[in-house]
Amino acid sequence: MNIFFDLDGTLWDSSERLYRLFRDLTGIDNLSKEEYWEQKRNKVSNEAILNSQFGWGENQVRAFTEQWLMRIEYPEYLKLDQLFPFTTSVLSRAKSSGAYIYYVTLRQSASRVEQEIKDKGIDGYCKKCLVSEAKTTKESLVRDSGITLSADDAFVGDTGIDVISAKSLGIRSIAVLSGFRNKETLEGYNPDFIINDISELYEVL
Known about the structure:
single chain, 6-stranded parallel beta sheet, two-stranded antiparallel ribbon
């Protein structure tokens, strides 16, 4: 069995990185992390937050987005990502059970992803890390990888993109509530399973 894991929000918590960068780029300090993250989980974009809540104009929002894309994977921000306490044990169990593990991400820099999974000590569990480098989709990453798929395989992630990718690939979709989207949003994509986080993975596999 192949198991494809998204990274941000699935294997580790990226909420502090996103909030810190938002605050640093905007100078806005009257929006708490909890308030910001609740909106993100409800699928409210940064652009919408800035426009509707803080009255930013089109040029300001465009400049923000450019800086966001440039800085979101800077090492000083990536170090804010925190591995979930159960991640290592889940990956270890999956590998011990004979599953082939792959990490799949839309990150821009493959080298920084590889460094981050190494720094977090989870590089030894996966056969390969598939990184789009902002050039393709998760579905295409998997299709073009040469990996032989079966209906028993699973794609585990925290967004609608992950669910859609799984369905397009003809494998099981397992959505987690530990990341970027809430349950109501994820239910709209009709995943095969919704779990709180990957500590519950073997309740549905």
